[in-house]
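hiii, so i know i said id send this last week but things got crazy w the move. better late than never?? heres the sequnce for the chain we talked about at the cafe, plus the structure i predicted for it. fair warning i was half asleep when i ran it
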Amino acid sequence: MINLIKEGTSNTIAINPATASIRSNWDLILTQDYDLYSSSISLGLIGDDISVYNKYMVFGLSSSAIPSASGMYTYQLEEYSTASLIWNLAAENWIEEEALWSDSTGKNSERVIDTGRAKVVGTDTPTYGTYTGSASNTGAYITYYR
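okay and structure toks below
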C-alpha cells in the first residue's frame, strides 16, 4: 500500500516491484475504486541503489499530479523506454498531429511491473457545473468525490 498526499509540493514513494525493472522511464497509473477514474503520473527515480539486496525503487512525484479526490485506488507501475516514432508505424493519425518532427518521441516496450493499492488524501474540492440549453433543461449539479 502506498500513500499519496495532495497537499504540499512533492511525495516520495518506495515500491518493491513484482518484476525486475529494466527500463528507464516509469508511470504510476491510478484507478479510483469508486468510479474507475484513471490517471497517469510520471515518476522520477531517486538514486540508483537497486540491487539484489535493495529491491525497493524510490520515486519522487509532484503533488500537483496527484488526483484531488480522496479514496482508495488501484495502482499499476508501468515501465517503458522512449523512442523516435516511425511515421508509418505510429498509432496516431499524423495528418492531425501538431507536434514538431523533432519532438516526435513515444513510449516503446511498455510493461506493467507491479500492481497494488494506494490511498490518496486529496483536497476533495467539489466540482460545480451548470447545464446550458433550452429553458426546460436548465439547472445545476454538484459532484462530490465521496
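btw Strands lie at 2-5, 10-15, 25-32, 38-45, 57-62, 71-84, 105-121, 127-130, 140-143. thought thatd interest u
miss u guys!!
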